[in-house]
């Protein structure tokens, strides 16, 4: 397999982030860098989303009910019928995007979690993903099932495997084993 990028997809909550986080942790023979996204929780409820750099642990908010923004996602607020999560591009644009550019060509494998509808609203992020793909960087990314035209186009052009509740353990193990060979600096020989 000589693909330079592989995507995993699946419904929200199926374990895409956990799969990539485990792969990044378990492939200790590789220099892996990139970004992992996750839910922020308050009182047991989803309170937004954050992004965390793999190498440094630096994190920042992507979406939260506390963010005032014209870009909004999520369930509708009862008060005004608007989606409850405001999206901020600050950490994504100012920290994540420059970091991904900086590690391209240095890391054996770049992990991006996630290429989703919220991230797709950031032109800089779309540009960086395009640059990584065009440069044939070894890239393993989760990609949402969003019908966003840019995301749909990526899924159609990059080999994509679907993570389900029934295959997530096996697929995570298989991707981890494959990544150790596929992204090895010596080509896995």
Notes on the protein architecture:
The chain is α/β, with parallel strands linked by helices. The chain has a single domain (5-182), classed as P-loop containing nucleotide triphosphate hydrolases (Rossmann fold, 3-Layer(aba) Sandwich). Helix content is 34%, strand content 30%. It contains six helices and nine strands. Strands 5-6-4-3-2-7-8-1-9 form a nine-stranded mixed beta sheet, with helices on both faces. Strand 2 and strand 3 (45-53) form a beta hairpin. It is globular. It starts with a strand and ends in a 7-residue tail after the last helix. The mean pLDDT is 92.
Secondary structure topology:
Elements: E1 5-9, H1 16-26, E2 32-42, E3 45-53, E4 59-64, E5 72-76, E6 83-87, H2 90-103, E7 109-115, H3 117-120, H4 123-134, E8 139-143, H5 149-157, E9 160-162, H6 168-182
Keywords:
single chain; 189 residues; alpha/beta; Rossmann fold; 9-stranded mixed β-sheet; 6 helices; 34% helix; 30% strand; globular
Please provide a brief summary of the model:
The protein is α/β, with parallel strands linked by helices. The protein has helices at 16-26, 90-103, 117-120, 123-134, 149-157, 168-182, and strands at 5-9, 32-42, 45-53, 59-64, 72-76, 83-87, 109-115, 139-143, 160-162.
N-to-C SSE series? EHEEEEEHEHHEHEH
- Poorly predicted runs are none
Helix content: 25-40%
> Per CATH, what is the topology?
Rossmann fold
| Overall body shape | globular
Major beta-sheet overview: 9 strands, mixed
Helix/strand/pairing category: alpha/beta
Q: What is the number of domains?
A: 1
Q: What's the CATH class label?
A: Alpha Beta
Portion in strands? 25-35%
Total beta strands = 9
Distance from N terminus to C terminus (CA atoms, Å) equals 14 Å
What Rg do the Cα atoms give?
A: 16 Å
Find the CATH superfamily. P-loop containing nucleotide triphosphate hydrolases
Q: If helices are DSSP runs of H or I spanning 4 or more residues, what is the number of helices?
A: 6
